[in-house]
Amino acid sequence: MKVNYLFEQKGDLELKVTTFYGLEEVLAKELHRLGGKNIEPFTRGVSVTGDLGFVYKANLCLHTALKVIIPIGSFIAANDDELYQQVGTIEWERFLNTDQSFMIESVLNTELYNHSLFVSQKIKDAIADRFRRIQGKRPSVDLIRPDLRIYARVYNDEVSLYIDSSGEPLYKRGYRAEQNLAPLKEVLAAGLVSLSGWEPHQLLIDGMCGSGTIAIEAALLANKIPPGYFRQDFGFMRWQNFDEQLYDTILENALNRISNREVEIIGNEIDAFTVKKAVANVGHAKVEDVVKIQHGDFFDIQPTRKGGALIINPPYGERLPVHEITGLYKEIGNKLKKDFSGFNAWIITSNPEAIKAIGLRSSRKIKIYNGSLECRFLKYEMYQGSKRDQYTQPKE
Ligand SMILES: C[S@@+](CC[C@H](N)C(=O)[O-])C[C@H]1O[C@@H](n2cnc3c(N)ncnc32)[C@H](O)[C@@H]1O
User: Fold this and answer.
1) CATH number for the domain whose boundaries are 6-164
2) Where are the domains of the chain?
3) The pLDDT of residue 393 is above 80
4) N or C terminus of the chain with fewer C-beta within 10 Å?
5) In a 3-state reduction of DSSP, which class is residue 309?
6) Portion of the chain with pLDDT greater than 70, in percent
7) Interval between CA 296 and ligand 1 midpoint (Å)
């Protein structure tokens, strides 16, 4: 097996950046803007090449990435003995010393093993036993904040190993101390804002904002605030080759690019307790100047501008009777027709019956996953007046 001992390597690295299903193209565009090379989307991720500085920048600045991982080698293993044996041939002492800690996370797409924990355990044993054999002691395992996070993917009998540069997944931004019952992951919220095509000079309303994630992520995007700014920790910071000076320079450059654009984003929420959480989160993210959280019913909103974008993530109705949830979505459709002309309205939901109840024709329908829930992100273009009026009215 050819192993990529990346801590000793200079120059470009081959990276895989993972994301949610449906956000691959958005992520590819972000990587392009960030200066990545050889960008190629695949399902739930994008391949890209870049140097160590790019790894730092990607973790710090990408809005729609979950993890930045670096392949170190792959091999065929027909059973757990072969897996153990192959992993033990890698010179792990070139990645890690015995005073450090590590952990394994495995994802399986195979019939060879039933449990990812079993595979992780085998890989851990192979690494620990190799250290014992060669150095007489072994690094410890730390499942919370390891020095080296190893990511294993098993596809049939092919095992691919990666080093995870991110540490905790990148949706854990660090600004959201307060959560409501069903918050969107920050990465998904950023993806929805990007997919919506909203431009920062337009008004953006989230009519059912919960803990405020969509509004906050829109503010970060609009003013180019690096979403990693709020985190104290990335996995690469504990690598043996961590270049703190390089990281500081990259952070400084990213902070210098923050703009002071005037942006108007409104997050509206009916539940008073949840409103308090959203306000706190907006404060933690330091975007109070552009995000206004208001307490009220979506159905009472009267937009202050003639057009813009509306993004809503209404309840999906898993805990409600069918007629209640279809009733809610029917009212949403009526509200859009009545008060949101000139807006591009976007709704994300996992509920197909609810979609029918909206009673409007969507102009785009994007398949996307919210956790394990298959959803549709639907666009409704609310013309001023009816579409027919636009054509039948006399030309100016
Ligand atoms: C699925 S949650 C939204 C989660 C949000 N995107 C987040 O990341 O936290 C739906 C939210 O809609 C709110 N809601 C339900 N009906 C509403 C209404 N008529 N007006 C305003 N908010 C409403 C609920 O209180 C709940 O917080």
Assistant:
1) 3.30.2130.30
2) 6-164, 186-229+258-391
3) no
4) C
5) strand
6) 96
7) 11
Q: At what angle do helices 213-222 and 186-196 cross, to 10 degrees?
A: 60
The class level of CATH for 186-229+258-391 reads: alpha beta
The 10s digit of each residue's pLDDT in 252-289 is 999 999 999 999 999 999 999 999 999 999 999 999 99
- 209: Cβ–Cβ under 8 A, 6 or more apart, which residues? 215, 267, 268, 269, 278, 293
pLDDT tens digit string along 180-203?
Answer: 667 899 999 999 999 999 999 999
| Strand-pair category, 101-109 with 148-155 | parallel
Distance from C-alpha of 153 to C-alpha of 108, rounded to nearest angstrom? 6
Q: Is the CB of 274 under 6 A from ligand 1?
A: yes
Distance CA 94, CA 352 (A): 52
pLDDT of residue 167: 95
Q: Half-sphere exposure of residue 142, counting CA atoms within 13 Å on the CB side?
A: 18
Q: Is 337 exposed, middle or buried (0-12, 13-18, 19+ CB in 10 A)?
A: middle
- Decide whether any atom of ligand 1 lies within 6 Å of the 269 Cβ: yes
Q: Where are the beta strands (DSSP E) in 110-252?
A: 140-141, 148-155, 158-164, 203-206
Q: Are strands 13-18 and 67-76 parallel, antiparallel or unpaired?
A: antiparallel
396: pLDDT strictly greater than 50: no
Q: Are 21 and 43 in contact (CB under 8 A)?
A: yes
Q: Ligand 1 centroid vs 59 CA: distance in angstroms?
A: 30
Tokens (6 digits) for 371: 């956790």
